[in-house]
What does this fold into?
Amino acid sequence: MSYWDKEKECMPREQLRELQLRRLKETVYRVYAFVPAYKAKMDQAGIRPDDIKCLEDLEKLPFTTKQDLRDNYPFGLFALPMSEVVRIHSSSGTTGKPTVVGYSKKDIDTWSELMARALTSAGATRYSVIQNAYGYGLFTGGLGVHYGAEKIGASVIPSSGGNTKRQIMLMQDFGTTELTCTPSYVLFMYEIMQEMGIEPADLKLKAGIFGAEPWSENMRREIENKLKIKAYDIYGLSEVIGPGVAIECACKQGLHIAEDHFIAEVIDPLSEKVLDDGSQGELVITTISKEALPIIRYRTRDLTALDRNICDCGRTHTRMRKVLGRSDDMVIIRGVNVFPSMVESVLLNIPGVEPHYLLIVERKGNLDQLEVQVEVSEKLFSDEVRKLEELGAVIGKEMESALGINAKIRLVEPKSIQRSEGKAKRVIDRRNI
Ligand code: DLL
It folds into this structure.
């Protein structure tokens, strides 16, 4: 087992809770004093900073949502003057104004530390050659990973997203040992490798640190088998800091949340009540060390469950289950909640099915219909129609028994579904148009 900062990562829980409480109190005082929008919300809820006396008091504080960030666009939630802000990132968002986040010098240090921990947890060292194919720019993936990789002293290749043939050439020529990108992008890279006649065994690649979008255990198996590497899940979001909020260790039994910097809760998204550990709900995060943009009880919209048991790796930080999906990506088909990752899990258990799929939702009359487009292997596609029909029927049946929904299955030609160099788009919802 390798740790970047064993003292912090394996800190006894009592000590960790003390640290969290101290930092939480400081954060609440700071936002109350310096961010008018937080003061207004707390005043409205009748809470004063002094009311936070123990960690359980966190529940008394109001939630923060993406809407709050939008309402205070661009810098209204910053707790520092712009002269102290050294970096601005932003996430595009599909509708409306982007979400803007800011960092002080210390925030950048914290973030780099967290990314150093994350990369070390996935086995990277100063001898690693890390190819960072997360997009550089306003997206937090590129620069977030970059600073952490430099911090551990690895050799970083800032390849950013795209230009896939060049990515593969770099991997070959520079001897990349760790690859960082989205899970959908690594699968696309694999296809191009095949076209170029390059076998994973020809490469030095040992591990990948994949995140920024949901991916199932079956997808992990697919990536590990195809690329012959270990695939680790990394989680994060711009509003909280970026990548590095949570990372898997070698045990791969959930992602350790960096609890010396964040407090995690899981709530029922409807009643907004805090749920017990182990129950699935929406992840809510409070930052307790951020300076420029502290955020209180941020509703991530990501669905997961928490496990506070100490992990076999020795880390004491709470683990979150692999994210099932974002509530925004959930489609409700005739009353059944369906996440793309659930469909993915079913599909990837069926031989002949490729890990490329798309969910299309339409409303016909008053009825919602789900079509799942699935790519099949080259071999199968050129086979008899009867075989394809049989496969379609098998997928339909598996989907019905696993998810309880009746979907139209459309088998499509290999490589016909659009590939992604960043976050994959898995759902097209035509109901709103
Ligand atoms: O995606 C930060 C990041 C970059 C994470 C690189 C990991 C690696 P945003 O663009 O703000 O930030 O998007 C955050 O992406 O709320 C989740 O819905 C989703 N997400 C991020 N990591 C995972 C993951 C970055 N490992 C949003 N599994 C989050 C599932 C993830 N979903």
